[in-house]
Design brief:
The protein is an all-alpha fold and 215 residues long. It contains ten helices and no strands. The longest helix is centred in the C-terminal third of the chain and has 28 residues. The N and C termini lie far apart (83 Å).
């Protein structure tokens, strides 16, 4: 009798375990594309972008060809930019361009990539390489899409980056002069000599680098 009770308990526990695992599986996997998309939208609305990224992974893993994927990617791009998470925004833009880039939307996607890189600049002194990369991308964009509706905005970004680079070179040159390193100072002055910007026309930013760069 005792052994029968024990066996019954074991079977009951096993059934509960299987039932629990089955419920979890049904909850987390094999859901319609719209289910994951709605979950993603709710997470974005709640400001939980980490969860939204997870739901996007489920969406694209379980429904590779879903028409909801490109729309979800655009939503995540904007959401991450709103949260100043520009690296993640650029990641989704790169993926979008690879999968859904066409002659009709390429200028917009490339513009958004430049904008994300520009907005991601936090300190000119620390982000010299990113400034140069973004500046070259802006110049390339203007050459590739001269008639795009986004070109004027890219031109504005280009001018701001050119001015930022010029002022940064001036500051570095002045620093080397104060440290009695004329050769290094001359190198940065020569870089600015090749620019279309005139030193006499420059006005140092009074709001700090970051405020001037974006305002």
């Amino acid at each position: 009798m005792y052994s029968i009770v024990i066996k019954t308990i074991i079977v009951f526990v096993l059934l509960l375990s299987v039932s629990g695992c089955s419920g979890k599986s049904e909850q987390e996997f094999e859901k319609p594309a719209l289910y994951w998309y709605q979950k993603l939208m709710r997470s974005v609305a709640a400001g939980n972008l980490e969860k939204a990224d997870d739901y996007f992974t489920s969406l694209e893993s379980e429904h590779v060809g879903s028409p909801l994927i490109p729309e979800a990617m655009q939503i995540l791009v904007q959401a991450h930019m709103d949260e100043e998470e520009y690296l993640l925004a650029n990641f989704y833009l790169d993926e979008y361009l690879k999968r859904y880039g066409t002659s009709k939307n390429r200028d917009f996607v490339e513009f958004m990539k430049i904008k994300a890189s520009f907005m991601g600049l936090k300190s000119p002194q620390r982000d010299q390489e990113l400034i140069e990369e973004t500046l070259q991308k802006a110049k390339g964009y203007i050459r590739s899409f001269p008639n795009s509706e986004f070109t004027p905005m890219v031109q504005t970004i280009e001018v701001r980056l050119e001015l930022t680079r010029f002022m940064m070179n001036e500051e570095i040159a002045s620093l080397y002069e104060r440290r009695d390193k004329p050769k290094a100072a001359r190198m940065y002055r020569e870089r600015n000599a090749k620019s279309w910007i005139e030193r006499e026309d420059m006005v140092p930013p009074y709001k700090g680098w970051l405020g001037w760069l974006f305002e």
